[in-house]
Each structure stands twice: as structure tokens, then as C-alpha cells.
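User: For documentation purposes, I need each entry recorded in a consistent format: the amino acid sequence on its own, followed directly by the corresponding C-alpha cells. There are two entries in this batch. Please keep commentary to a minimum and don't merge the entries.

Assistant: Recorded as requested. Entry 1:
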Amino acid sequence: EVLMLLVLMYPLLRGLALHLHSAVTGSYIPGTHSIAFVNCLNEQIARDIARAIMDKKLAAYVNILPKSSALYFWKGELEESTEILLLVKTRTSKIGELSNYVRSIHPFEMPEIISLPIDQGNPLYLKWIEENVPRD
């Protein structure tokens, strides 16, 4: 029973240990920040969505990548199109709110909004993200 309790509590204890270690050493906790990917039909929509994200302070930085080709299945058919991709740098804790907001303003029926945690990076840059995206 004790072993089972320890196994169940491991993620919580590990999280607490990481936060304590980070507080003491000033090191980065992997996954505290994320990069979200948002696809857009054209550059104007991409700019409008990027600006809306920034106006709501849901990100510290948004890259608007140039047009690229895309292949995907939609309603059983293989489709080919072009799209603009946003790379959104934010706190991981903001991903849910970011996703809900983008879905509410995005013209696509089902926009791509996916994210990946940032494992490591320039500590000053990661701190800058933190300073520019308010806590929940």
C-alpha cells in the first residue's frame, strides 16, 4: 500500500521537487512555457489572429511564417492547399485559454491549434516570456 501511494504521488512529489530546485538554483523547469502552432488561410487572417492574441496578452511573441504547402485529409478526401503558420510563445498554463480564444475568432471550422512544451532554452528569453504573459 505504501508503495502504491508513492507511485501515485510520484508526479506530484517530482513537480514539487522541481519547483523547489528551480527556486533555489534559478534554473528553468522544463515545460513551463510552450510553443503553439496555429494554421491560417492567408497572411491577413494570420496577422489579425496574431494581433488579437497579443492584445489579450496570451503570448509574448508570435512568428508569422511565410506561405507553405499543406496536404491533409478532410472529410475523407486528400486536400492540398497553402497556409500561413503562427508560432505562438507563451506560458503552458495559458494554452487552454489561447486555444479557446483562437477557436472563437478563427474562420476555419476546425483550426489546427497544437502545442509543444519548451524543454530548455535561453534562460533570459524564457524569463522574458514569463514577464510578458501575465499569470492566471
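Entry 2:
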Amino acid sequence: DILVDGKVCDCDIVVTCQVGDPVPLQVKLTNWSKHSVGPFALTVMPYQDYQNGVHNYDLQDAITFVGSNTFYIDTVKPTKDSVYFGALLFLYTGDFYLNIKFHEDNCSRELPLSWLCLPSVHIRAMEPVA
């Protein structure tokens, strides 16, 4: 589950926010399997989609994180969840997307790390209303 500014997000919803206001972000990982999973690392990567196949991830002048964009999640037991809380600050107007990935953070494995990518979240940063 993904919540941006308290609103549940899916791939069909555009969340609007105001430039200069911190935007709360919540990502919840629920373990529906019969076995414990983890450890994981959760990474949030903002980007702009230029609609021509190019994604711009070089946004350090347009978006900043309040805190870190990577969080480490220990083992999640069956039917339990782990929740990440963070915030983004948009410095300019525009349409932005969040690429949210979970990946295994177990260095003792000999197999390649597996990734679970959630659908991108679409956020529209707008000028503050006067």
C-alpha cells in the first residue's frame, strides 16, 4: 500500500501537492506468504517522464527527501507488515513519478538479488494557492 499526503495511490491516480510543502509518504509492505521474508531495502527514486522513452532521475535541484530515500526493513513475519514513513519536498512545479523498489538485502546469498517494483506513483507539484 502506498499513501502520498494521506491519500491511497495506485497507477491511475494523480496526487497533487504544493511546491514548498513537505509531502508525507507512507509505503507498507505486507507479507501474505506462510514464511518470514527479509531483510529488505526499500528505495524511493523520483523521476520525470518526458513521454519519449526518457526518464530523468537527475532531480536533486527539483526534489529533496526529508530524511533518506533508502530504508532497511528487517524480517517481516507471515501476515504482518512493515511500514516506511518519509516525506518529499518539491522545489519546482511539474509532473513527477516515484519509482519504489524493494530488494533483498541479504549479502550471504549466492544468487542475484531479486527486486519487487511497485507501480509508479504520479505526483503533480503545483504553485501554492495565494
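Summary note for entry 2:
The two ends are 33 Å apart (CA to CA).
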